[in-house]
Amino acid sequence: xxxxxMTQSLVTLAEDNMAxxxxxxxxxxxxxxxxxxxxxxxxxxxxxxxxGRLLSVAHLFDLDTETPANGYRSLVHTARCxxxxxxxxxxxxxxxxxxxxxxxxxxxAELEAYLAALTQLRALAxxxxxxxxxxxxxxxxxxxxxxxxxxxLREYVTLHKGCxxxxxxxxxxxxxxxxxxxxxxxxxxxxxxxHYKRNETGISVTASSLFxxxxxxxxxxxxxxxxxxxxQNLDVHFWKAFWNITEIQVLSVxxxxxxxxxxxxPSLANMASxxxxxxxxxxxxxxxxxxxLTSDPEFTxxxxxxxxxTGPGPVLVRLISYDLREGQDSKELSSFVRSEGPRSLELxxxxxxxxxxxxxxxxxxxxxxxxxxxxxxxxxxxxxAQELGAPILSIDYSLAPEAPFPRxxxxxxxxYCWAVKHCALLGSTGERICLAGDSAGGNLCFTVSLRAAxxxxxxxxxxxxxxxxxxxxxxxxxxxxxxxxxxxxxxxVLSKCVSAYAGAETEDHPDSDQKALGxxxxxxxxxxxxxxxxxxxxxxxxxxxxxxxxQKPDRSPDLAPLTEPMRRSVSEAALTQPEGPLGTDxxxxxxxxxxxxxxxxxxxxxxxxxxxxxxxxxxxxxTVNFLLGSEDGSEMSEAQEELNNKDRVxxxxxxxxxGFHPRRCSQGAMWxxxxxxxxxxxxxxxxxxxxxxxxxxxxxxxxxxCALDPMLDDxxxxxxxxxGLGQPVTLRVVEDLPHGFLSLAAxxxxxxxxxxLCVERIRLILNLPxxxx
Length: 773
Hints:
The longest helix has 32 residues, at 518-549. A hairpin with a 7-residue loop joins strand 2 and strand 3 (300-303). The chain is elongated and about 90 Å long. The chain is α/β, with parallel strands linked by helices. Helix 1 packs parallel to helix 3 (71-96). The chain has an 8-stranded mixed sheet with strand order 1-4-6-5-7-8-9-10, sandwiched between helices. Strands 2-3 form a two-stranded antiparallel sheet. The chain has 21 helices and 10 strands. The chain has helices at residues 3-22, 28-57, 71-96, 104-134, 146-156, 178-198, 214-218, 220-233, 236-243, 331-334, 378-388, 407-421, 440-455, 491-501, 518-549, 572-576, 630-641, 647-650, 692-695, 712-724, 749-766; strands at 278-284, 289-292, 300-303, 315-321, 357-364, 392-396, 428-438, 462-466, 701-706, 729-734. Its main location: membrane. Residues 7-329 form the Hormone-sensitive lipase N-terminal domain. InterPro entries: AB_hydrolase_3, AB_hydrolase_fold, HSL_N, Lipase_GDXG_HIS_AS, Lipase_GDXG_put_SER_AS. Residues 598-617 are annotated as: Disordered.
């Protein structure tokens, strides 16, 4: 059924039900039913034109005709699902309203809940329409005056959200198997949030909290209100604990004698996972080593251990292999093993070792840069190891806010280079190497590859990124609007994670009760902020000094060192100078003026990017051009001109027509960190903002995204940029699944199919034969 027909049918039924209940006397229930159907009629008639406008231009933002996916399409799909449910419910009411078995209170509560959702979806449609008329042609992300987008986001977060987590939870999902999953997640989240707030001495998120939320299951209105409360009040440490829930041991009572440690217990993540021969946690010592340059293997470059923020330290990685292969039980590899209990190596005897695989997968886990480890992702990684017949090395990078950018990038790059150099120890010949990651891990896969190209060392043969985050700047896009109804990725949570990764999480809430800090607390806080500002200022001055002092006289091309090509994407100082406490911010800022698109003929003369943070003030607008060609641009311009040209002058804030008022959050004004400092525009933090010369160094990229994911536009725009540069890229978008489906792969058929799609993409990169039929 097309949108207009659906709307007309809903309006007709609403008017019929209005007429019936208005004739039933002056009772309160009849009055409320009449009012709810009047509201449904009003909101449906107002929503249909806005959705029609979005749908008329949505195809212009697709990667190609075979991949019809972007945030505009997802928003229209979500609104259609709400309209379809209301149409079904209105038909039910019209058919059964005279029956003595008609549950008046139940149907009234459900209709009121979906009316609230429809009202909020109408607000989102107007916001999306405002983005469409304000953005530059062909761009999904807002770019412009950051004060305007900050006002827009602050207004957006005041919208009422509780209706999406009560009776309407999962209405946008077609596959009914996913709805109980979303309900379980939301119940566990609000129950854990309640436990967390009650504990004044520390984090208290336990597995038992997932099973003590019965009242939230039977009272959907309470669940929605509680969800709205916790996403406003809980900090990033709660989300860190909640997202680590799968690593909690099932048994917490000691089974040993008093005074003896309890035996190792299985975690939730490993109860139903594939059995593998090898699952060993390795600790890579912080020792520099040499890597050959791909341009000339006779020359090498030094790979220094990670130093940012916390100084040199070991990097933890987990080796997973279905078979015990040559090198995996060597004394040299055993010297790196870090004990974590008797389950790290299965002891089932086999006649002989399997030969080294020609392939190797280097995996980087997700978790918003603040949570999870390789153990959280171990269940599906074990399945991958079995299906691919290749060892997998998963990197346990340090997490924010304790270890902000660029610590995770440094550790992942160091571990990747170590794996390439020591692949024989890992049970692989290293003929084919794939980088794979999800969410934040997908972001790190791209940036590790960019850094490998900048250093001149071997880049992976391909990247498989599942629902990656490629734009960490606080901005709006059509898919980001869906965070209003996403139980895993509310916008405030996304912003808190980005702020933690950017190093701003330690800053105090601007509206917090400062009296609670006390005099010494205020002094301690202000001193910490002063020292941070001094450190950032000193870092910027030192990097500028190194750049100016490090300029060399012109030399003939014949005398140029062979390592010169690796200096073109990032500053030479960032790659060659030892990174100490003052040098850890060397990757935090790049001059945005240099990030505009360049013609292919100019890529060989790309100047070095300045590391001066002074050139990247928060008010500097982004100059990165996401246009893919003049033809697409002209088509988009013509389509946008059909919209009201006056809308461009009104600004983003004037999104709603006169007389329409969406529901606002009952919890009062929500504080959300909108971190707009230069660091979030760094292409090693937001790879979508990387210049062409950097993106052209990437290997083939395969992206698997989710249609209802707030991060969908990150995948679409990144794939469009690569496609516009002629880079090999594929994008597959799965329906109905939430962000993070890989961690839920064993729960239902749809998540297993999506996980199998990721394996298929990795198989393409590794040139492995398909699975037996």
